[in-house]
Design brief:
Elements: E1 9-14, H1 18-22, E2 32-38, H2 54-65, H3 72-82, H4 85-97, E3 99-103, H5 125-128, E4 162-166, H6 176-180, E5 186-188, E6 194-196, H7 206-210, E7 217-221, H8 231-237, H9 239-260, H10 271-279
């Protein structure tokens, strides 16, 4: 009854008397009326309609307690059009039988009503605000190069089947891999080279396709790797060791391509049909 205005009416369906109901209704500072349509609860569960005439009985009671809203004759005419004369009779009887009791200030349950502290937008920020990813800064936080900020939660690397392996010795710094990468995976090093961030790379192979230098970027199957460590850091730390490792990765890639061809992405018409033949899986399985 919190929203009931002074002199207004609270209309309920109940088998209890007004004195019993007031024990559960909070005290108000202004007078109002409590109107009761006698009857048990009508709600019987989600999507269940009892058709016990509670709906039309409430309409009849409304015409009695709030005649300025709609008159009883208008309600009865509508009920006849949409239902039948039996429901019209129920509305008419509810109009005659509804009980209205004045409730004075101070009557009712003296307990403090439920109160809630509504959260502000800052408290609900996760549901209301999508924070942009900041621009980024220097490579590894330094002055030179550029390293973009990336989403700390959404990582794509777990979906890839191949990753790019980079030959920093033959890179011409043409920027094509950096420009064309759809996931902004490449960090610009202080010397102008491009190190792929393996936390962000999904293995699409675009960088290999756009690179103008033969075998500068080679896509290698993910089964050859155990972590997402930086290739540039490896190269800077141990150039000879990195170049030997690079040759191993190239050899693994060459062997795989010679045996099964390119294994990532869609690369030729009829590809899926060939895969079905190789695996023995039918297209409708």
């Amino acid at each position: 009854n919190e929203l009931t205005k002074e002199g207004g009416t609270v209309l309920v369906t109940s088998i209890q008397e007004s004195a019993d109901l007031l024990e559960d209704m909070h005290v108000k500072d202004t007078p109002y009326n409590l109107a009761i349509v006698k009857g048990p609860k009508s709600f019987s569960g989600l999507w269940v309609y009892k058709d016990d005439h509670t709906d039309v009985r409430i309409l009849g009671a409304l015409a009695k307690v709030c005649p300025q809203l709609v008159g009883i004759d208008a309600y009865k005419e509508t009920i006849r059009e949409q239902w039948d004369e039996l429901k019209e009779t129920s509305a008419d009887r509810a109009y005659d039988r509804v009980q209205s009791t004045p409730v004075e200030p101070g009557q009712g349950n003296p307990e403090e009503p439920f109160s809630f502290v509504m959260p502000g937008w800052e408290t609900m920020e996760e549901a209301l605000v999508v924070r942009p990813v900041s621009v980024g800064g220097g490579f590894r936080g330094g002055e030179g190069g550029f390293q973009p900020e990336r989403n700390e939660v959404f990582k794509k690397w777990s979906t890839r089947t191949m990753r790019p392996v980079i030959n920093f010795e033959t890179c011409t710094k043409c920027t094509l891999c950096w420009l064309q990468c759809p996931d902004t995976c490449f960090d610009v090093t202080p010397e102008g080279l491009y190190d792929s961030d393996m936390e962000s790379c999904c293995g699409c192979g675009v960088c290999e396709d756009v690179c103008p230098v033969p075998e500068c970027i080679t896509m290698v199957h993910e089964s050859n790797f155990n972590d997402n460590s930086s290739q540039h850091d490896h190269w800077k730390r141990d150039r000879d060791g990195y170049m030997a490792w690079l040759e191993e990765m190239r050899a693994a890639s060459t062997t795989e391509k010679a045996e099964v061809g390119r294994t990532h992405g869609f690369y030729e018409v009829g590809q899926y049909e060939k895969e079905f033949e190789q695996t023995g899986v039918a297209g409708d399985d």
